[in-house]
Each structure stands twice: as structure tokens, then as C-alpha cells.
């Protein structure tokens, strides 16, 4: 017994997901925000594309946040190898993922993250390590737009990462650690966009926004820290933590 059962939020995707618990990442931020409310589970796999994702087994959580597109959108290699997935197949793969998740439960909630932009200048520096590496914002936008269009067709919530990350003037340097993967600043934008979707999802019952979810062990306990007056205890669930104000 390690506490009561609680909702599970699964983050499913490629390296943007795998690295989301490091470097002030968006996954670790969500885990902190939802402490005592939900378990944030990491299912991120470096280098994965949507083709591999459709073969993966799924659990039945309360929320699944899905990201694929960055690796898919890379240009094709002349050998036929590599992570590239043609746009029509990418859309079909994402549709398969969405429909499969929808089939698991009527109460399962889904959010897709679209393909983000990249810092093309820094990518040129790293391109020497990869044969025929092609990753451009023109390609990223095509896959992002396709994901957004699909989500509208399937009535799935979506975060437009391609646009969201470009809302700050120095996004190329501020949002990425290497031109592709998210920095703490980039992750902060992702978290805010996800929380915005959850806050505005008034058709989801119960709400999965952190302020609307019950807190575990919210009742007073004689085992909590004793107040200065020595007559009562201080319930930690009522404390205001330093991070809460930034996610209002």
C-alpha cells in the first residue's frame, strides 16, 4: 500500500518526451504540478516515429499526451533507411494511434502535440554527424499542420507547438538545447499550453486541470507538523508552494 489509486497521465512520444524529465523539462514540471493529484508516466523513446508507435501496447490511463512528428518530418534518405515517414502515412499512423486510444475507454482523454519548429542554423552544425540529414521548418510546419487538421477531424485536443514556441522573439536560441530538443524555457511554454487545454476543456468531466482535481490526504492529521501555537497541526496540502503561481 503506497497511497490510494490515482489518475494516470501518460506522456507518449519520441525524444521530446523521453527528455522531458530533465533540464527543467515539461514532463517534470507536470509531475510537480500534479503531485498528490495524478501520476505522470513517461513513455518516451529517442528516435521513434509514428510508424513504430502504432505497434506499441497501451495502458488505460485518464489522459494520454501524444507527440510524434519531428523524426517523421525529416527528409528521406537515399538508402531508404532512417526515421522519415511520408506525410500521408504519418497522418494515417497518428489516426491509428488516436482511434486506438479512443477505443480503450470513453473516459480516456487525449491531447496531441504537433511538430515543433527547429533552429536550422544549429542543425547545420550537427548535420556532419548524420548522413543526408534534412530537417527544415518548412517540413516541420507541413507535419504540424497535418496533425492539427487530423485532430480537428477526430475531435481531439491539440497543442500547436509549431506556433507556440515561436511566440517569443529569440525562440531559436531560447527554446532549444541543441536546435531540436527543448530547453527549460521551451518546456515552460509546452506546460502552459497543455494546462491551457486542460483548463478550457469544459466538456471533460471530471476536469483534469490541476486546480480542479482533488488532493490526496487533504484532511487534517495529528501526524502533520505542529503549528507554532502548539494547539494544531499544519496540513501540507493547504500550503502554497513556490511553483504554483506561475501555472495559474
From TrEMBL:
Parts of the chain that traverse the membrane: none
One GO-annotated biological process of the protein: lipid catabolic process
Keywords: Hydrolase, Lipid degradation, Lipid metabolism
Domain (SGNH hydrolase-type esterase) ranges: 11-188
UniProt xrefs under SUPFAM superfamilies: SGNH hydrolase
Pfam families given in the database record: Lipase_GDSL_2
A GO MF term: hydrolase activity
Hydrolase as UniProt keyword: yes
Similarity remark: Belongs to the 'GDSL' lipolytic enzyme family.
Protein name: SGNH hydrolase-type esterase domain-containing protein
Taxonomy of the source species: Eukaryota, Viridiplantae, Streptophyta, Embryophyta, Tracheophyta
Amino acid at each position: 500500500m503506497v497511497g490510494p489509486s490515482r489518475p494516470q497521465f501518460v506522456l507518449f512520444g519520441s525524444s521530446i518526451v523521453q527528455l522531458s524529465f530533465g533540464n527543467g523539462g515539461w514532463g517534470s514540471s507536470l509531475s510537480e504540478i500534479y503531485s498528490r493529484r495524478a501520476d505522470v508516466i513517461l513513455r518516451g523513446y529517442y528516435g521513434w516515429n509514428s510508424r513504430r508507435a502504432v505497434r506499441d501496447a497501451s495502458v488505460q490511463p485518464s489522459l494520454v499526451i501524444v507527440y510524434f512528428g519531428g523524426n517523421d518530418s525529416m527528409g528521406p534518405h537515399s538508402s531508404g533507411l532512417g526515421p522519415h515517414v511520408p506525410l500521408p502515412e504519418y497522418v494515417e499512423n497518428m489516426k491509428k494511434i488516436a482511434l486506438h486510444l479512443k477505443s480503450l475507454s470513453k473516459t480516456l482523454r487525449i491531447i496531441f502535440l504537433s511538430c515543433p519548429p527547429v533552429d536550422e542554423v544549429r542543425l547545420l552544425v550537427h548535420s556532419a554527424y548524420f548522413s543526408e540529414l534534412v530537417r527544415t521548418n518548412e517540413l516541420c510546419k507541413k507535419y504540424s499542420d497535418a496533425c492539427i487538421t487530423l485532430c480537428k477531424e477526430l475531435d481531439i485536443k491539440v497543442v500547436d507547438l509549431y506556433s507556440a514556441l515561436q511566440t517569443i522573439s529569440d525562440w531559436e536560441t531560447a527554446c532549444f538545447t541543441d536546435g531540436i530538443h527543448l530547453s527549460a524555457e521551451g518546456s515552460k511554454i509546452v506546460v502552459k499550453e497543455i494546462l491551457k487545454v486542460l483548463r478550457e476543456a469544459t466538456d471533460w468531466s471530471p476536469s483534469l486541470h490541476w486546480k480542479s482535481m482533488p488532493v490526496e490526504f487533504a484532511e487534517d492529521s495529528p501526524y502533520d507538523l505542529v503549528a507554532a501555537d502548539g494547539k494544531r497541526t499544519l496540513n501540507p496540502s493547504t500550503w502554497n508552494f513556490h511553483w504554483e503561481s506561475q501555472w495559474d
